[in-house]
Amino acid sequence: MTRSVLLVAMLALGSAAAHYGGPFLLWGPDELKDVDVSALEGLDDKFLRDLYSNSAAVVIFLRNGTAKLTDDNFPSFRRIIEKHEYVYSPQQGLNSNPLDYNVNAEIINLVGSPTQQDVELSALYRDSSANYGERKVLGILANRWDEYHHELHKREARADDSSTSTTPAGPTDEPEIDDAIYSVPGKALIYISSAPVLNINGTSDDEYVLDKHTVATYDAREKESKLIVTFKVDDTAKLTLKFRFEMSSGYWTMPKVDVFLLDTKNKDAGKSVDAVLEIESGTVPYAPIGFSYSCSKQLVFRNGSIVLTLENIQVQPAMDGSSKFGSAWDCIGFTTAPIWSGIFVTSIMAIMLAIAICAILDIKPPNRFESRTGKQLSFTVQE
């Protein structure tokens, strides 16, 4: 009874502000599988209207934009996402209101600490799934409209300041994403278990942990493509990584990464970088076109003192419309050192066994034997 009253109160709060800001994360129904999201226009409005209507229920969660959407803050929500189809859209608004297309649509304002929001979001979505059916409830995670509107005013003010100022422009004002998943839906996808680390001069003072990035873009060419990701490292620096993919004979490779660092405050301090890093050691990441490359080992790209470190990576370019990784080619492979050791020892034992069997088969016992009543046998031995 208490939960029902709470839901009604939340719904009333949400209805008062029917608008909400992006970016948006949608999950739940199987219709979200292999959905192509335009980086400029976002999700197709007709597709959204059909999705609202065909879902048994729609639950819109409005979160506090200051709560970072990380595994540490939202572990329960992460487990829900992993079990369902989901789509991320960077668009800043929805043209169609879900409340107009589904009678079971509701808006829930998430309040409190990130941990409290995670528990509330996960519990309410599981309750809706239990009531309406698994994979029949559309979940939408968005930002509150007032915070989104406030952010727009901040961006407009920055634009006005930049138009009248002669100082260099600062880092990108695009939405920041706190993860190590760089995706251009249907084009290219990179997943890294932890944030990339860029070290410029071999000291801890010049080390950047790239844990905040903007929307990635993909430059597709016939023989070479690039996945371009921009990171915000501090208030005065903008860093861009360009992952290069070369296409040849039905295979793709990732031999190089371009690094461009612009520090508008420390231009003369040796911190502005424009370099091409090459794989330091080991095999260059590669796979047939249509397959992904996976490596649990550390990949290091280097150019002199500039080092980029990637941990536990899975990558695939030229995805041809798919939003998920293809079958993976692992950098370790099947024949590892322990497997080779086992094959070597087994081969030696098999050879020794074969020699022993041959020796036993070569033994020739006599074909006549002495008896008590018979004549004594004699053998002639020639020297």
UniProtKB/TrEMBL annotation:
InterPro entries: Ac45_acc_su, VAS1/VOA1_TM, VAS1_LD. The chain crosses the membrane at residues 339-363. Keywords: Membrane, Signal, Transmembrane, Transmembrane helix. GO terms for cellular component: membrane. It is a single-pass membrane protein. The keyword Membrane applies. It comes from the Eukaryota. Its main location: membrane. Residues 333-370 form the V-type proton ATPase subunit S1/VOA1 transmembrane domain. Residues 154-178 are annotated as: Disordered. The keyword Calcium does not apply. Residues 1-18 form the signal peptide. It is found in: Membrane. It holds the Pfam family Ac45-VOA1_TM. Belongs to the vacuolar ATPase subunit S1 family. This is Vacuolar ATP synthase subunit S1. It comes from Culex pipiens pipiens.
